[in-house]
């Protein structure tokens, strides 16, 4: 048994070493992919009531890997977040999205704000604020046209630093939303301490909001809470008209999901903005 135990310990150590090597190799590959232009952005519209009332866009990253094909962000973003490689990835997203907005603006389109998903590591880093300020200036984009989506877990890690950074972002007129609301820690005290604008109701509650009464009640409560705190609510992952109708009746203001749009290419955004009826 003792012999066996040692073997297991050794196997475990080898597996750990292997996992560390794998993580390291993956990080290297992400950095490499960035340099070689393997990443691109797609944009998912957020709408007011109907598809021709687009109020904003969410930038979502994609990785076209030369051998492994298209890798979804759920695969590599968590790996990138384990190390500092998330910062160059995230900076690339900010640069790319602002460059895109500037192009649309120059083409005479009626542009709408773009939301960018920000990982906690980047939010609390010293790098974010100077980078964003410089890029807004460089591309001549108003802060109102930028929004950052941040998940709840992040907000509780270092609340003081979050308050500091968010206050500076607000001073640039950048909007801040809480992503996947309701899935993180249950403390709600951060809602009153942070300068937030938007709550995004997680799609896990939206999925059965019109069939399962517990989810209905959760959506109702989140919307009620948001309204009382003067926050805008966005429902994400809306896939059916029934869900949209239910959420509308509860007072949800904005919608995002396959029922309206899947994430689309920049070209498609351009034609959608040309037909947009929001004023
Ligand atoms: P998220 O921010 O919660 O984004 C919503 C995800 O749900 C997206 O998946 C979107 O394509 C998908 N989705 C939208 N509508 C529907 C719907 O009606 N039904 C269903 N089933 N899914 C829907 P995606 O693009 O694969 O992104 C997954 C996650 O990866 C994002 O979740 C976000 O956490 C992260 N992510 C994506 N892009 C970035 C990025 O540029 N930076 C960072 N830090 N994270 C990113
Ligand atoms: Ca998001
Ligand atoms: Ca989300
Ligand atoms: Ca999510």
How far the N terminus sits from the C terminus, by CA atoms, comes to 74 Å
Low-confidence stretches: none
Shape: globular
Find the structural class using helix and strand composition.
Answer: alpha/beta
Family: Belongs to the ammonia transporter channel (TC 1.A.11.2) family.
Subcellular location: Membrane
Domain EAL: 23-277
Protein name: Ammonium transporter
Overview features:
279 residues; alpha/beta; 9-stranded mixed sheet; 12 helices; 9 strands; globular; binds ligand C2E; binds calcium ion; Ammonium transporter
Walkthrough of the structure:
It is a single chain. The chain has 279 residues and is of the alpha/beta class. It has twelve helices and nine strands. It has helices at residues 2-35, 73-81, 86-106, 120-124, 128-139, 152-157, 159-171, 190-193, 203-206, 213-228, 241-249, 266-274; strands at residues 39-47, 54-65, 69-71, 114-117, 146-151, 175-181, 198-201, 232-235, 254-255. Strands 1, 2, 3, 4, 5, 6, 7, 8 and 9 form a nine-stranded mixed β-sheet that branches. Helix 3 (86-106) runs parallel beside helix 5 (128-139). The structure holds ligand C2E and calcium ion (CA) (3 copies). One calcium ion binds at residues 58, 117, 149, 179. Belongs to the ammonia transporter channel (TC 1.A.11.2) family. This is Ammonium transporter. Residues 23-277 form the EAL domain. It is found in: Membrane.
What's this, in brief?
This protein has 279 residues and is of the alpha/beta class. It contains twelve helices and nine strands.
